Amino acid sequence: MAEPVIHLQDLCKTYRVPEREPGMRAALGSLFHRKMKEVKAVDGLTFDLARGEMVGFLGPNGAGKTTTLKMLSGLLHPTGGEVKVLGSIPWKRERDYLRQITLVMGQRSQLVWDIPAADSFELNRVIYRLPVVDYQRTLKELTDLLELGPLLSKPVRNLSLGERMKCEIAAALLHRPQVVFLDEPTIGLDVTMQRRIRSFLSEYNQRYEATILLTSHYMADVEALSRRVIVIHHGKLLFDGDLAKLVQKFTAHKTIIVQLGDCSADLHSYGEVINCEAGRWTLRVPKDRTARITEKLLADLPVIDLLVEDPPIEEVIDLVFTQGSS
Amino acid sequence: MKIFRLVFTFFRIGVLTETAYRANFFIQLFQSLLELGTSLAGLAVIFTYTNSLGGWLPDEMLALVGVYFLMGGIISLVIQPGMSALIDSVRDGTLDFTLTKPEDAQLLVSIQRISIWSLLDVLMGIGVLVTALILLKQSVGPVAALEFIIMLMAGGVIVYSFWLILASLSFWLVRVENLLEIFQSMYQAGRWPVSLYPGWLRFALTFLVPVAFAITIPVEALTGRLDILTLLGAMGLAIALFIIARVVWRLGLRHYAGASA
Amino acid sequence: MTPGSEIRHLFRLYGQQFKTTFASMVQYRASLVIWMISQVLEPLIYLIVWSTVSNGSGGSVGGYTARGFAAYYLVFMVVNQFTYTWIMWEYEYRVRQGYLSFALLKPVHPIHSDISDNLSSKLLTLPIILIVAGIMALIFRPTASMTLWSGLVFIPALILAFLVRFLVEWTLALAAFWTTRVNAINQVYFVMMLFLAGQIAPLSLFPAWIQTIANILPFRWMLGFPVQLLLGQLTPVQTLEGLVAQVAWVIASLVLLRVAWRAGVRVYSAVGG
């Protein structure tokens, strides 16, 4: 088998943070002696990615996704373990390595604010030393795929959030990197734009055989990319495998939230009661029976409000965690 | 070299950014001219009562004003905006983008922002300087001219390194902008020859905040006041500070990347 | 509300403002230090430059010896600190960020919180400046021929100077309602103050026509006048004339202030705040 493009072995990142009780005495005490707490942001992560794979890196906030991504792109030094991308050690930040990767961060922009995106692209062209012909060709392809046409000549500050994100992604791909890291790229975008960007990434992955690692806490991101998913929580790897298996296993349920007058009723016959607070009931029901159960609830009970949701990612993660790794 | 292309590209972006706000040109022009007028009027008042200020002749003082604006212009053109942007990018994490680019990060952060209107100050400074040279009439010999250019470059390197060291402190400390503002307040003292000030102030303006190296010393070279010791000292300090700045920068990057000390 | 309770209410407002100002000054103590450095450095530089001139011109210039300049600029440093305002930048910031809406909604005229904020911060910075001036006095050894009566009249003159400066600059701050180019306006203002308040040089060193202009404009009455008064450089007649000019400017600026404020609020509300 060919050498994996991304290789992690027992990767660890531990932070030491100062810990302090509230109150005056503790504040004064901390002047003399600082208590440090060790936080394991990433704890023994191991996986490989082959060339052309697109992987969703999933986990709730604070799970360690961004930290892992930063170690892969060379921004952070690991505390322990091994990491190799394209045969290079990322934190050495070798020029040849950096030329082959790219990083897109959902809430931060590398585009220059007051000028058209096209000029920021120019800057990247110079920094990456792209020959003009190659650059023009790539730019045209990206413009077509992302429908950037009218956006390129507008100052970035005049673009909507979604338009900015498209330009952001284009800027990151001008140098045709072999490895693409995306950190929460769809955060804050409306549903339509999220879908467009997901389909772009899918197409880009197929066309250029780029290896793509994308972090998210949206289930929908992962579903759309429909390949392998790695679930991380508390810095530990919880699930690494086919998305189909994960979906089948853990999202065979839906969550129904029913608002009643109080918590006195007994709803066990409708579904698994997760909890109840001030009349707000959370039930877990099998996906295929959702419509029927909803009907029954509305008919039988004095429902004030009712909402049907996919199980939140935290719940899926909890399930994965409690049931152990597959 | 490829570096010049990079610098030129950032310059171009600076022009594109600022020309988006055209009115700023006229405002900036007005303010720069007003500042120059103020300096010259101040000199006029002083020189109605004397014909030599601590040994400095009016035309020599004019040269000092020229260098004051020239150096100040260079600082506001490229040094201050870049270092200020560096501090912000450490705080909001956009430094990460710079660090994933296949180019030396120190180079990128140093030229990342060009405040193009400050070119007005630079041009103004050069204009005043040239006028002063013409008025001085005395043969500013090739040696003095060369010394001047070298001291100007040394001054520039010293100021740049000083700013980079302070800006790099933002890897470890918060609110470093305040430190840099101290430079701005003390730079005002450079309007006058540092030799006028009492010892303790002269020390502060030379070794704490390198105002003397930025302004007074290059003009001393021009007006034949420079002794060989100061010349060599300034060159040595420029090289030393440049190296120290690079070291501090790299240490800062390692800290930012969470490398074990 | 009765006048008595109104006054008590104002007192409480001022007291409250003092606590707020103090807290934020502790928070921003670094920028405070920087500001104080420039407050000290500027008069110090002029002190040194003029001392150099006078030493090189046979000991005195325009009636001032080096030590005379020291006296002038050290007193200037303190008077400047006492009368200082930063209200123009305050208003530019408030208008830009839209915070002015909050101030306009309160039942009290915003000028009260501005005055109390200003005075509160000086309760802390003035002692520091006095100490620094004292240290500088040990270094530069100022001399002046002060008199008792001029020392006494100095106090009301100083208060009037503060009022003139505050009211004029507060009115100027309202320019923020009409333009964002406040920096350019402020710069013109400060250049005029530099020359006409006795800052770049004591006013007596300027030709007569400039001194006449300085007497008409308010700058001298904000700074130069109380300084000259304390140093015993004015005759009783000149002192009286100065006090009248100060009072005249307080009244004039109050009138201007009311007009500008009303017009400004109209513009601000029209735009939507």
What would your notes on this structure say?
The complex is a heterotrimer of chains A (about 325), B (about 260) and C (about 270). Chain A is an alpha/beta fold and about 325 residues long. Chain A has two domains: about 5-250, P-loop containing nucleotide triphosphate hydrolases (Rossmann fold), CATH 3.40.50.300; about 250-310, YebC, transcriptional regulation domain (Alpha-Beta Plaits, 2-Layer Sandwich), CATH 3.30.70. Chain A is built from eleven helices and 13 strands. Chain A has a six-stranded mixed sheet with strand order 5-6-7-3-8-9, sandwiched between helices. In chain A, strands 11-12-10-13 form a four-stranded antiparallel sheet, with helices on one face. The mean pLDDT of chain A is about 85. Chain B has helices at about 1-20, 25-50, 60-90, 95-100, 105-110, 120-135, 140-170, 175-185, 200-210, 210-215, 215-220, 230-255. Chain B contains twelve helices and no strands. Chain B has one domain (about 1-255). Chain B has about 260 residues and is an all-alpha fold. The radius of gyration of chain B is 19 Å and the shape is globular. Chain C has one domain. Chain C is globular, with a radius of gyration of 20 Å. Chain C is mostly helical. Helix content of chain C is about 80%, strand content about 0%. In chain C, helix 7 runs antiparallel to helix 11 (about 225-230). In chain C, strand 1 and strand 2 (about 65) form a beta hairpin. In chain C, strands 1-2 form a two-stranded antiparallel sheet. At the A-B interface, helix 3, strand 5 and helix 4 of A face helix 1 and helix 4 of B.
- Helicity range of chain A: 25-40%
Low-confidence stretches of chain C: none
Largest sheet of chain A: 6 strands, mixed
Oligomeric nature of the chains: heterotrimer
In the residues of chain C, how many domains can be counted?
A: 1
How far apart are the termini of chain A? 24 Å
- The helical percent of chain C reads over 70%
Q: Work out the helix count of chain C.
A: 12
